[in-house]
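Quick review question:
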């Protein structure tokens, strides 16, 4: 196993290397892809869900807590064997994850009308169903750089 698609360890190393490179660049958002582990604003999807879960717990939002716990468990199974790496603090790195899953679902990065989004298209007949997984205004990210 010597490709990112075959090695969970290489996925994490790749994401860390790409983040470390991007953080040394001035005023740059770096978009990479196809590691099978999405990263949005330097947080992998599980990191972001965990942050949302902590906020829901603080607000005592029971319904959201349950939904986020289920989503985290589902993502852990999806990324099974892949490490949950350190949170990367500067929101300079993005990774599409996997352009096409074995079930026909696809993930990608969209940039439109001043926003950047991590999206997932679920195979659903010919049309498919689009879901926004993460979203941020570009001005906010550039202010963080």
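Suggested answer, residue by residue:
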């Amino acid at each position: 196993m010597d490709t990112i698609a075959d090695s969970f360890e290489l996925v994490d190393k790749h994401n860390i290397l790409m983040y470390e490179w991007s953080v040394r660049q001035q005023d740059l958002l770096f978009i990479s892809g196809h590691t099978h582990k999405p990263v949005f604003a330097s947080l992998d999807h599980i990191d972001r869900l965990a942050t949302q879960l902590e906020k829901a717990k603080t607000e005592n939002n029971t319904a959201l807590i349950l939904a986020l716990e289920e989503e985290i468990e589902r993502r852990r199974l999806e990324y099974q064997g892949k490490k949950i790496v350190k949170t990367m603090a500067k929101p300079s790195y993005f990774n599409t994850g996997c352009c096409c899953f074995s079930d026909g679902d696809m993930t990608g990065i969209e940039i439109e009308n001043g926003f950047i989004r991590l999206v997932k298209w679920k195979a659903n007949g010919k049309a498919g169903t689009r879901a926004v997984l993460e979203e941020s205004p570009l001005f906010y990210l550039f202010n963080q750089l």
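Why it works: The mean pLDDT is 79. Strands lie at 30-32, 39-40, 43-44, 93-95, 106-112, 115-122, 129-137.
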